[in-house]
Specification:
alpha+beta
Length: about 100
């Protein structure tokens, strides 16, 4: 999986970095959490402060286009992002048996 940052925009009003990216995958659309980890490393943010807004698979080619928001603090993230996106970008808790 290769990730390419297409555009970075600093939104001072919401205190976040807005990133547009492309992902080239070998077989399937990559998992949201995998993309989140690699993208956070590329833009030098903690993965827990990055929210993947969307990933869209382009028709006919093995490329996906997506949008992510990166925040400086957890408080700003929780204040701005909807709860369902925070849940979608959180790794599942390990099940106890």
């Amino acid at each position: 999986m290769k990730i390419k940052v297409v555009d970075k925009n600093t939104n001072k009003l919401l205190d976040r970095l807005e990133v547009t990216f492309e992902v080239e995958a070998e077989a399937e659309t990559p998992k949201r959490l995998e993309v989140k980890e690699k993208l956070a490393a590329m833009i030098n943010y903690d993965a827990s402060l990055v929210i993947i807004k969307k990933i869209e698979q382009l028709t006919g080619i093995r490329k996906s286009v997506g949008t992510a928001h990166a925040y400086k603090t957890q408080e700003v993230l929780k204040r701005v992002e909807p709860e369902h996106l925070i849940k979608r970008n959180t790794p599942p808790a390990p099940k106890e048996e």
